[in-house]
């Protein structure tokens, strides 16, 4: 336990006698650490964090307040990258996340920004994986064995179906849903659904948006914009400019266009042919 812990922390924190906790680790108030957990020198556990049992927290890893971590999760071990040379990169996990059995998350590398960042209120089902240098937003759900390659960026309120995978350097925009077993190899625009072995867009995430309080007008505008962007016969650049102008007053559509403007090396995921 950290030598900086005050007496109130000591009385409110519960550590199983079989757990191995570095004296250099920083442990917040009200933390619970179960049997056979291992917490390394540079770990920081926020207030109320709960490690069930057999959890490994390694490297320069910080866990936000209220996060619960289930057995056999391994967080902060060296990234799976041939160019990682032991640099003191970080894994930063937000508050009130639920990280289920066998989840793995890796810190960043010097070839990117040295950080892997996980937002607040994430739910990571058993076997999910977040690779080095990823950025994951708030309120995400990763179903069983959903995986991110290195440098992926996932927006807020994204749902990844079971066994889905996002290739290195790809982005998935906010409020998207990926179908089970889908492989993402290009950027998925916000508010959409992508499905398939090589993922293709199937439409707007209407049900998800309704559940999150988006107005009927906004959803209707997004559906119309989607048709204009992905089902028209013009070249894609022309469709983008037409949609930008036509929906100039719709913030959600402009967010989608801005996402397309920032597309990187993998391009933008297109709609499935009907």
TrEMBL record:
Function of the molecule: Involved in the biosynthesis of lipid A, a phosphorylated glycolipid that anchors the lipopolysaccharide to the outer membrane of the cell.
Family under the similarity heading: Belongs to the transferase hexapeptide repeat family. LpxA subfamily.
Upper lineage: Bacteria, Pseudomonadati, Pseudomonadota, Alphaproteobacteria, Candidatus Puniceispirillales
Pathway: Glycolipid biosynthesis; lipid IV(A) biosynthesis; lipid IV(A) from (3R)-3-hydroxytetradecanoyl-[acyl-carrier-protein] and UDP-N-acetyl-alpha-D-glucosamine: step 1/6
Annotated Gene3D superfamilies: Hexapeptide repeat proteins, Udp N-acetylglucosamine O-acyltransferase, C-terminal domain
GO biological process: lipid A biosynthetic process
Keyword Transferase (UniProt): yes
Transcription regulation among keywords: no
Keywords from the named record: Acyltransferase, Cytoplasm, Lipid A biosynthesis, Lipid biosynthesis, Lipid metabolism, Repeat, Transferase
Residues in UDP N-acetylglucosamine O-acyltransferase C-terminal domain copies: 187-269
EC number of the protein: 2.3.1.129
Reactions catalysed, as given in the entry: a (3R)-hydroxyacyl-[ACP] + UDP-N-acetyl-alpha-D-glucosamine = a UDP-3-O-[(3R)-3-hydroxyacyl]-N-acetyl-alpha-D-glucosamine + holo-[ACP]
Designated name of the protein: Acyl-[acyl-carrier-protein]--UDP-N-acetylglucosamine O-acyltransferase
Intracellular or extracellular location(s): Cytoplasm
Pfam families: Acetyltransf_11, Hexapep
GO (cellular component) term, any one: membrane
Subunit structure: Homotrimer.
Transmembrane segments: none
């Amino acid at each position: 336990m950290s030598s900086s812990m005050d007496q109130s922390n000591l009385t409110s924190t519960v550590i199983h006698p079989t757990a191995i906790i570095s004296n250099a680790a920083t442990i917040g108030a009200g933390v619970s650490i179960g049997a056979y957990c291992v917490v390394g020198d540079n770990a920081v556990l926020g207030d109320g964090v709960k490690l069930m049992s057999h959890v490994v927290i390694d490297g320069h890893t910080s866990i936000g307040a209220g996060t619960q971590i289930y057995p056999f999760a391994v967080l902060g071990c060296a990234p799976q990258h041939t160019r990682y040379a032991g640099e003191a990169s970080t894994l930063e996990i937000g508050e009130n996340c639920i990280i289920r059995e066998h989840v793995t998350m890796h810190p960043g590398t010097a070839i990117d920004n040295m950080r892997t960042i996980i937002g607040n209120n994430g739910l990571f089902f058993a076997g999910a994986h977040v690779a080095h240098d990823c950025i994951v937003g708030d309120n995400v759900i990763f179903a069983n064995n959903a995986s991110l390659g290195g440098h992926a960026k996932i927006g807020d309120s994204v749902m990844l179906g079971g066994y889905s995978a996002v290739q290195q350097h790809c982005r998935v925009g906010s409020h998207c849903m990926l179908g089970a077993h889908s492989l993402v190899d290009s950027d998925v625009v916000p508010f959409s659904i992508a499905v398939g072995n090589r993922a293709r867009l199937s439409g707007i995430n209407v049900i998800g948006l309704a559940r999150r309080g988006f107005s009927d007008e906004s959803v209707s505008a997004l559906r119309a914009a989607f048709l204009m962007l992905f089902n028209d016969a013009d070249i894609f650049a022309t469709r983008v400019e037409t949609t930008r102008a036509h929906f100039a007053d719709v913030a959600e559509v402009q967010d989608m266009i801005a996402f397309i403007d920032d597309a990187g090396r993998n391009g933008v995921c297109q709609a499935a042919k009907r």
